[in-house]
Design a protein that fits this description.
By secondary structure, this protein is of the alpha/beta class. Helix content is 42%, strand content 14%. Helix 1 packs across helix 11 and helix 5 packs across helix 6.
């Protein structure tokens, strides 16, 4: 039994296998129509979602499985009954648990006490399937992942952490440009750095946005993470130098621009860039479906 909790669980070959499977499913979905026939999963969401919920439900459907959506936005897991008991119950009925949760610890407890694969559909620390879809998109547009130079710009968050993890494993060079005190998780960075050294690539954190030059990819995300009620205008002054606008993209030399969505247009990214010819934002969103299909198939059928 395998889980996808952080992204660190998989080797480079296993990452590449997931990406290749997702590409095959995208190209010829009919070939995989019975991949999860008779199988099911619980899709548990403590946070709102458009892309993640839709694509996980459709992933089950396209593989002839069934995903049961459990709306947990009125209360965190563990309040009505323990997370351990929640997991023990669900594992009697379904073949997989998919969780979009506030705390990484929730997913770890689900996996600890359960008996089926657990998939991280977003936590405070990681967003691993998102990063897989991101690198799938990079490969589609640039023809490779190994050696590609990725610049993440903005608030260091769960997406940044997962770009580091997957990038280090796949051989990409990833630099995160952040204001002071808005950097990615130090423990994740340290662990990913060790893997990057072994794979002949680099990951780095940088505050000086003037060093954003000679990159292949510019990637951004919202300045305020989901669940943080800080108004965007309250952080505008701090983050404005990191806004992905035409001047910043030109400075970077990037071939493509990415955003994991939802986007706050006019804040972390301008309309001109979001809708411009370098934007692959909606290709990236589409690939969430194919990655989720591949991950479900690999873990449930392992």
């Amino acid at each position: 039994m395998r889980h996808l909790l952080t992204g660190f669980e998989f080797s480079q070959d296993e990452y590449l296998d997931i990406l290749e499977t997702a590409s095959a499913m995208k190209k010829d979905p009919a070939k995989f129509r019975q991949e999860l026939a008779g199988r099911s999963g619980a899709i548990m969401f403590e946070k709102p979602s458009l892309r993640t919920r839709t694509t996980f439900e459709l992933a089950f459907y396209r593989l002839s499985g069934h995903g049961v959506y459990l709306d947990l936005q009125n209360g965190e897991l563990g309040k009505r009954e323990t997370i351990a008991d929640y997991s023990r119950n669900l594992c009697r009925w379904v073949d997989c648990l998919v969780g979009r949760v506030f705390s990484q610890r929730t997913l770890e407890e689900l996996a600890q006490y359960g008996s089926v694969p657990v998939i991280n559909a977003l936590s405070d620390l990681y967003h691993p399937a998102q990063a897989m879809a991101d690198y799938m998109t990079i490969q589609e547009h640039l023809g490779k992942i190994k050696g590609v130079k990725v610049a993440y710009v903005g608030d260091g968050n769960n997406v940044t952490n997962s770009l580091f993890v997957a990038g280090a494993i796949l051989g990409a060079n990833v630099t995160s440009f952040n204001p002071e005190n808005c950097t990615p998780d130090a423990v994740v960075f340290s662990k990913a750095s060790e893997i990057a050294r072994k794979n002949g690539c680099t990951i780095a954190v940088e505050n000086d946005i003037s060093k954003l030059k000679d990159f292949d990819v510019v990637y951004t995300d919202t300045w305020v993470s989901m669940g943080d009620n800080t108004p965007l205008d309250a952080v505008r002054k701090k983050f404005n130098p990191y806004q992905v606008n035409k001047d910043l993209v030109d400075q970077s030399g990037a071939q493509i621009v990415m955003h994991c969505l939802p986007a706050h247009r006019g804040y972390e990214i301008t309309d001109e860039v979001m809708d411009g010819n370098k934007s692959v934002v909606f290709d990236e969103a589409e690939n969430r479906l194919h990655i989720h299909m591949a991950v479900l198939a690999k873990l449930i059928n392992a």
